[in-house]
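Predict the assembly for these two chains.
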Amino acid sequence: MTEVLGRKKPRILLVEDNPGDVELLRLALKTAGFDCELTVVGDGGEAIAMIRRQGKYAGLAPPDLAILDLNVPKNDGIEIIASMRASEVFRDTQVVVLSSSSSPRDYARLERFNIARYITKPPDLDEFLNIGSQLKSLMAG
Amino acid sequence: MTLALMTRPTLPRSMRDVPIRRKLLAITMVTTAAALLVAGAGIVLTDSYLFRGYLERDLAALGRITADNSTAALKFEDPAAASEILHALRARPHLRTACIYRPNGTVLAEYERTGLKDSCPPADARDRMRFTDTGLTLTRPVLLQDRPIGSLTILYDLSEIGERMRLYSGAVLLVFFASSLIAFLISARLRGLIATPLAQLVQATTEVSETGDYGIRAHKFSGDELGVLVDAFNQMLASIQSRDRELMQALMSREDALRESREARDQLAGLNVDLAQSNEKLARSNEDLERFAFVASHDLQEPLRMITLFSQLLVRTYSVPAGEDAAGYVRNIVASARRMRDLLSDLLAYTDIGAGSLDSAQPVDLNGTLDHVLENLKVSIQESGAVITSESLPALRVHEGHFISLFQNLLANAIKYRSERTPEIQISFTRSDGMLKFSVRDNGIGIDPEYHARIFVAFKRLHGQNIAGTGIGLAICQRVVDRYRGRIWVESQAGHGATFIFTLPEELCAPLSGTSLCLAQERMGEFHDRSTGPKETADPPGGG
């Protein structure tokens, strides 16, 4: 992760439509002391526009990490990952799936993509806050 | 046919096609004529024969008398007396010539009816009578005291016979014509007896063949063969008519049956369409329901999770002075939310079993599946100190998730409903009669037989909140086994542990390289302790 080390702050893209989860994730990152630049997108359509660098996203540099909820409006998480892997710019971006589902079917659908982590959203506060340090250690390599 | 065997009368070709009426007339006339001709000819011939006999006898007598009378004339050489004797023969108109000869053959006297002279034939002294070209000739010697003294010859003209014949023939012809006329007249009346019924019969057959109406009957005029023929014909018509009627009825009933079967088929087709539509509707509504259950249970988990997390966050962020109360309330919120979460999770698992096709099932080594389950249950196994042993399990073509749910629920129950003793759980597998039989035996509290059927029903629980549970675990097990066309039941007595048994069809056996398939008998009975340190389970997919 030499690229990350060269930067001041790691840039993280979060695709999540639930404001509660967004707030909890911010808290988790803060609790872990993970200083990063977080960009939040509320639906799949917006995420794909960003990956294709359409409109206001023209010339956008790819993030260091993308955290995706699979179940988001418009285009779902699988489509977003497929779009990333098909893009020259976002092709190598690390992806963490943060899902409310632990369905085996979701695992199966993700098998063909190179995913860094699959995290089921925990139903306990401490476990949830622990996600921050997981992400920090992932980015630290 | 017997008719064909009968001798066929041979008729001249010209007669064959003549109507019966005229044939009958011809038969009558020919028969009558033949009889009359034969009779006439017989009469004429008989008369002619009798007449000849009569003539012979008459002439013989005449000759004898003449000869006797002429004895003296010859003795005394008296031609005049002889001539007188001969002239007495004039009374016979057909006596043509008579001559008396001297012994030397010269003519003493002669009689010639027409008056001609020298018509006497040469003398002949033999006593005989013969028919000649000219008639009947009688020659006879004239005897005196048995010595011949001359001879006599008489020629008799036979034209009388011809006259008689002509007369007779004329009479016969007359009778013939008269009787033919009478026969014709009578037969004209009589032939109606045969020809008329025949004509009627012919008319009836023609009508039947032309109209096809077998109801027509020929009229019976008599009790003779023709009557029998008419009866037979009528009977034949009647039997044809009844057969025709039966045939029509059969045809009509067949037609009816065909129409009915066609209607039935149409109805059936309609019903099939209805059924297909109902099935489609049912499948759709079932799908909708499953989808609803899935989405509901899935989406309901999210707000619950939020409630839990933010309740915890609330307590943590704003710790109140007498914080214990607030912390206790939040613990209740969290516990309730967790319980609801478990319910939803199980409900989700339950609906998930029905989803997806079995066609995509892959060969699964159930030993690996069991390892996975033991890993999931690691905490409760360690807490309870449970000892779990298992025989070698087969590889089956199934969805592994289904069997994770199945084993996990059975094992979790065996641990959860334990008695004071350390839980000992044995998993067995046998194969017999085309069935794969699995059993999970524990030494727990057991189940009263009264409740054996009830425990497999969703949300039926035998215990209160003191033992955690959603009441859906065994329903999930039942549903998994049902999905693979198997059967599940429990054998247990309260206080004596329980054995959960399920069977599956042998067809599920799957070839899997490097592992035993559905196990052979010799590998049975090997128990492996699975409760201590199962091999490290793989990370979830994507975890690397």
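Residues 14-190 of chain B form a domain with the Beta-Lactamase fold (CATH 3.30.450.20). The first strand of chain B starts at residue 95 and ends at 101.
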